[in-house]
Amino acid sequence: MTLLPALWMLEMRTRKRTLKGRFTIAAKHHITIAEIYETELVDIEKAIAHYEQSADYYKGEESNSSANKCLLKVAAYAAQLEQYQKAIEIYEQVGANTMDNPLLKYSAKDYFFKAALCHFIVDELNAKLALEKYEEMFPAFTDSRECKLLKKLLEAHEEQNSEAYTEAVKEFDSISRLDQWLTTMLLRIKKSIQGDGEGDGDLK
């Protein structure tokens, strides 16, 4: 069976599960469909739509952890597509939901970090205000390496110092390896530093 007919059949099954009120199973089907769109068909917009639908169903069943996983996928792709406000709202929402949970609060700093980076790409002042808000909401964020990096990057950006920016990123990366998403966002910010132009496509 080729991919598209198989996808069509899966979507039909998902609709049937939804009509029968079996939302958890429907949510799992939407994740499977989203994964096909992101890996096989490379249609990120459709992948986002299915992850969002899955998150809605999980929320309705009060499976918040599963809903958050889907929403974080949406946020990551939204930022890649330069839909920064959408990404910010999700990262802030998930961060706020996890910061008071003893088992999950360590992850909250990552979500606030990513939200701040999205703010930073749009506007430096927005990033500063967001950083202050996150520190107030989640005091543990202040002592995190992510928060300290953001402050160094903001200072370097304000001074239009490309070398200081790169050095701060290198120092962070030497301890906590940057993934592709973070590298992409940090490069987008770096390119806004005067004199960096299109940049050399490198942070190291």
Automatic annotation (TrEMBL):
The record's InterPro entries line, in alphabetical order, gives: NSF_attach (IPR000744), TPR-like_helical_dom_sf (IPR011990)
Q: What is the lineage of its organism?
A: Eukaryota, Metazoa, Chordata, Craniata, Vertebrata
In Pfam terms, one family for this protein is SNAP
Point out the coiled-coil segments of this chain: 34-94
Provide this UniProt record's keywords sorted from A to Z.
Coiled coil, ER-Golgi transport, Membrane, Protein transport, Transport
Which family does the record assign? Belongs to the SNAP family.
Looking at the keywords, is Transport present? yes
What name has this protein been given in UniProt?
A: Beta-soluble NSF attachment protein isoform X2
Q: Which organism is it from?
A: Mus caroli
The places in or outside the cell where this protein is found are:
Membrane
**Can you quote a single GO CC term?**
synaptobrevin 2-SNAP-25-syntaxin-1a complex
- Gene Ontology biological-process annotations: intracellular protein transport; regulation of synaptic vesicle priming; SNARE complex disassembly; synaptic transmission, glutamatergic
Q: Which GO terms describe its molecular function?
A: soluble NSF attachment protein activity; syntaxin binding
Q: Which domain of life is it from?
A: Eukaryota
Instruction: Outline what the protein does.
Output: Required for vesicular transport between the endoplasmic reticulum and the Golgi apparatus.
Per the record, membrane topology reads: Peripheral membrane protein
Q: Which CDD domains match?
A: SNAP
